[in-house]
């Protein structure tokens, strides 16, 4: 009788453990963002067989879908953030989201090479193919017409040489005016018509209600090749531009100092704000970086203590890091600092 009672207790205990395990393993609709890796850009940037400096580091944020147990455990780590699937993916599915990150990375690489070539005294050329459709606003008259991944190659039959020229043309139209959009989809050209709507950031200007990123190709001599593999997003732009500049000029920018950083880059060399800078500071410190470039850009709606630079400084203090956090608004800010450490 005692043996049977003991057996029942063991079975019940095992059953409870199994149920607890299954419960904690149950998938949630949340993702966990955490510190990723600090990768030497020399893995990704090269020119005619020459590699970029091993001491320039780009930093990533890792993303993983959370089980219930993982979700709860993440509260024990101050640098892990829970984000809902809707907030992360928006209206895209996972494959569309990954595709968008690839396009961001493509644009980041093009801008990095283009501006680095200009500063290095080269004569870069950019072939503009159009703009990728990344999403549509709820009020867009092109919803259910344009697809994510379409490339807009013309408006009203007119072709353009830059994203700015295309946007300027649309914004000069009257709100409610009918425009014709030509898109490339699966190697086919398709025309759609629809009325313009107010631009979200300036109601007095016209828009077609899309989120976009440029589709282009940069040509330089010597040729710079960037292959970031499965890493997506635009935040490595600054570090790619520094690596490209080094390959164009042959200058050693770091002189043995491990330099990490983050920030987008545009055609004019402006460094833009990114997400997850606290996690990137943690990853850079873990990799032994001595310097960390953080964007100082203050976007509308953000307070001064919410800039990437301010958050990076706060994070470095929190983890007792000895890294120097350097604010950068432009590529030239970063280059000027690197020239100082060479002396």
UniProtKB/TrEMBL annotation:
GO molecular function per UniProt: ATP binding; ATP-dependent peptidase activity; serine-type endopeptidase activity
Enzyme Commission designation: 3.4.21.53
Active-site residues, as the UniProt record annotates them: 235, 280
Pfam families the record matches: Lon_C, PDZ_2
Gene Ontology biological-process entries: protein catabolic process; proteolysis
Domain Lon proteolytic: 227-341
Record keywords: Hydrolase, Protease, Serine protease
InterPro entries according to UniProt: Lon_proteolytic, Lon_Prtase, PDZ, PDZ_sf, Pept_his_AS, Ribosomal_Su5_D2-typ_SF, Ribsml_uS5_D2-typ_fold_subgr
Catalytic activity, as annotated: Hydrolysis of proteins in presence of ATP
Gene3D superfamilies: 3.30.230.10
NCBIfam families hit by this protein: SepM_fam_S16
Similarity comment: Belongs to the peptidase S16 family.
PANTHER family named among the record's database cross-references: ATP DEPENDENT LON PROTEASE FAMILY MEMBER
Name the UniProt record assigns to this protein: endopeptidase La
Organism: Lactobacillus jensenii
